[in-house]
Amino acid sequence: EEMSDLISHLYYLNYFNEPGDEIAGRELFFEKGCIKCHSIASQGGNIGPPLDKFKSDVSTLSIAQAMWNHSPDMVARMADLGIDKPYFKQKEMANLLTFIRSQAADSVPDEKFLLPGSPLSGQRLFAEKSCIRCHSIYGRGGRIGPDLSRKGYYGSGASIVGAMWNHDSLMSLKAQEAGTSRPAFSKSEMADIIAYLYFIRSTDIAGDASTGKRLFEQKGCAQCHSTRQGEQIGPDLSTSDASISPVKLAAAMWNHVPVAGGLMEEKGLHWPMFNGDEMGDLIAYLKSIARRPTDQAIKLQVRR
Fold first, then answer.
1. What is the pLDDT along the chain (304 residues), one digit of tens a residue?
2. Rounded to whole angstroms, how far apart are CA atoms 268 and 245?
3. Alpha carbon 100 to chain centroid, angstroms
4. What are the residues facing 43 on neighbouring strands?
């Protein structure tokens, strides 16, 4: 459990406070047309509320909830005014939010600050708010929208906010076609939903087993570890419990570094390096070859 706690902490670091560029955010405030409806420091439009009303400690999730709940009205007003709806990519949302926070007038503490959110509550809300009717998680759920567990969608809470804003109009239309109402969020509900979407990828990995098999050979793993055949220097990874869990595998690999390093040096092998999603692909391969007891064997073990 220690490795699980450590990885959870490291994974969490970019969730709530993704570093943003204040100067780039200021440029976006003008480029995206935000200033046409919103003001900061008395400069800008008065159609929407002034954005310097937010305090410097305002959370990304507070703004996300406000943007989502008021999105239909904002989109309608933009259409009336002939303003194109802004779209956000990469770190643009993080940069914009950093600029807004930098312009805050902190005269009164913000009592509406939202906590990071509960992934477990978010999982429940994902079903209750009918998100699951359009989106799937690891293949379970609707097929109207994309599977939100797929890699490459977002890397922080701010990027989730940007993705929801970019696709809000389409999601609202699809919800109407499916006979469901567009969900609204209150209290910590948006925080919970975003926490759930962010952390689902910390508990599982959607790797490619065929790529993992190739990496198993290229990285030299097959030189020491058997997968039903091969030299038996290290444990048979097709029967190891460590290979079926990314966290267990990380703990096992770390704990055995001194022994593995010595053996690799003896055999003249280079220490393998993993980039991008290669470790995920390797784990997917190990899962695909894992040998588990048959139902009959399990029953015999239970009786004994």
1. 888 888 777 877 766 556 688 899 999 999 999 999 999 888 899 998 888 877 666 666 777 788 888 888 998 888 888 888 899 988 888 888 888 878 876 645 444 444 678 888 999 999 999 899 889 887 889 888 888 887 656 667 777 888 888 888 888 888 888 888 888 898 889 889 888 888 876 655 567 889 999 999 888 888 888 665 555 677 888 887 776 677 788 888 888 888 888 888 888 888 889 887 788 888 888 888 877 544 443 343 334 3
2. 29
3. 23
4. 40
- Pairs from 180-187 (Cβ < 8 Å, separation ≥ 24): 180/130, 180/133, 181/130, 182/72, 183/129, 183/130, 183/131, 184/68, 184/69, 185/65, 185/68, 185/69, 185/129, 186/65
| Per-residue tokens: 280 | 């995920």
Given a contact cutoff of 8 angstroms between Cβ atoms, the answer to whether 154 and 15 are in contact is no
Cβ proximity of 33 and 227 under 8 Å: no
